Amino acid sequence: MPQPSTASESEAPHPPAIEVTALPRRALWGVVGLVALTVGSLGLAWLFPDVTLLHFLWVAQAVPVLYLLLAWWGTQSAPVTDDAS
Amino acid sequence: MRLSTWPWRLLLLSFAGLLLLTLLLLLADFAGVPKGVVNGFFLVVSIIGYAVIGMFCRTANPDEYFVAGRRISAPLNGMATAADWISAASFIGLTGLLLSDGFVGDGQHPGGLSYLLGWTGGFCLLGFLFAAKLNQSQAITIPDFLGRRFDSAAVRWLAAWGAILCSSIYLVAQIYGIGLVASMLSGLTFELGVFLALGGVLLCSFLGGMRAVTWTQGVQCVVIVVSMVVLGIAVSFKTQGHPFVTVAAVQSLPEIQARAKQIETDPAELATRDAISQRMSNLDVKIAEPVYAREVERQTIARQVARAKADNAPLRDIQKLEANPAWRETSVDRLVGIWQAEREVLGQAIHRPVGFQVPYLQGWNPGWNNSLALIFCLMLGTAALPHILVRSYTTATPAEAQRSVVWALAFIVVVYLCASSLAVLLKSYVLTELVGAHLDQLPDWADRLKLRKLALLSIQDHNQDGIVQFADIRLFNDYLVLGLPEMTHISSVFTGLLAAGALAAALSTADGLLLTISNALAQDLYFQTASPNAPPLRRVMLSKILLLVVALLAAWFATNRPVSILFWVTSAFSLAAATFFPVLLLGIYWRGMNRVGALMAMVSGLLITLYYIAANHPWLQIHLQLQPSDTLWLGLDPVCAGVFGVPVGLLFGYLGSKLSKTLKN
Predict the structure, then answer these.
(1) Which pTM value belongs to this model?
(2) What is the mean pLDDT of chain B?
């Protein structure tokens, strides 16, 4: 367990400036992938509105897992340096 | 991946402790210990456990209190983010929502899949766009980040009010959920349940701020995931004889589809729907001429009461007649409200799908517009909710912040995979055991769910044939999943375990929201304007006092029982998306964005969203005598208001920045 700590003047006296940068390429492709996967999956479900098994297995079960893989892939390259602080 | 040892000891200990507690209570249940005692044990142990962690993590160090020392590892921060994000509504509500609204909707409203995709997809946006940048800024709150980015106190002030608004709406819904679960577990009244559980929240967030909240949320994440997974395994074993809930759901689907087709063409079901449609038409006539309708109905009731008294009818029958709202309600406005609510419930009874979709749903329809709009709002809202965004500040590096988002999504996905499978298994019980049963020979679970203090089911025999049709059934979706153990005849210990998970979901979200609101009030509003050079200890103390005040206010609001948790939670997503997403996106990735653009983006997005939600609220529509067709844009539901707010915010942010630059030049 962490030990209770006491007050200290630990507020950062000079917080780093907030840099404006371009959207990293991988993040951009990630957003494109997210839109394509979402619209494509829903489109597929709407194209076959009576196929419940498809809705359940693909949209309710597989797509969230694919989102997870997409999030993992899209955040692999750190867009900013780790030693910011 | 760097994992320090003791945090994982704590989490493993909580995991083992929860399993051990469940096993012990299972034994107690088999030994005949009363159900109330078993369930109450979960409540007491949970709240004491969270409070103890809060006390061990108490701090007055500002860096620890506001951002947990910025040294939380990615997996633990992910667990805390997942617990912070999984609210009572999404934990206990998603299964019922999928069960009731189906997967693809009824052709008018969004289906349950929209919630599933919107709530999970938003974490991709958070990881891709904001997490690393927010961590790199070393800010304390989201308004602090925006204020520094645009070097503007006005931007910070406005962002603080935006954060308070979004978080307050969400907080009241969470505390309402806490009250429901706590009263169900303990047998206390709703109001006492609210204040009892609130004690646990306050002990944690008041004493230890973000540090205590992080550790508590880590343990709460374990409780949330374990409770849902264990319930999925138990129900799967009971229904199909194996522990794989997804496979059990797939095995049940063909039977559900066959039964749904049978019900949809059953003459008794069609007669019930006709009777409901007739009742709705009568209500329309009454709502159009309420004063006249009330007089006619009162005269009819007076005659019926007089006849019943003359016939020496039982007092219960007379009281039933007098319970008619037209007899007892003095205000015409309230009476119209009651009739409209009844009409809405009846409409849901005939429009909701029997299986997981309405039959013959072909071609583009308004429901699909609503589905896309809702997914848009939920995704952008998830990526812009202030209490989720602040979790990016608590890791050591930007890369860790991004990785923690992936961890959070992993835990959330596990919960939702189980929730959607459980919806399928629940549907199977409703269609095969309840529909077609005689009213005097209902399945035992149906009687229990009807008679509970927190009713999960009601049945009204609309066509008076003494048999339950699908349209006769009303399921209370917001918390129906709590009745799953009774429906599947597994031990009531699982109800307690699930309720402990729901309580953890509501408490963890309430913790995060309370901190966000109190920090916005103290750091961004008070100290920024009145006392910018205040010492750190004073800042922490004022934040703690405000946290207490906000918690009590939210509890007071929650005891007034807001009508729909899901409506208010979804509205909060729309408000967060419209207020923060445009300004964060443009502020982080466009150099041309300036303070005028930031102010215009936030104000325009927030106002348009608030207007759309308010203008389409039933209360306002009754008082201004508006019809939904007068106020709906493109037929979109009010919870999708962010679909208008976000583009307007982006446009005004761009135009404001460009115009102010041109005028300056």
Answers:
(1) 0.90
(2) 88
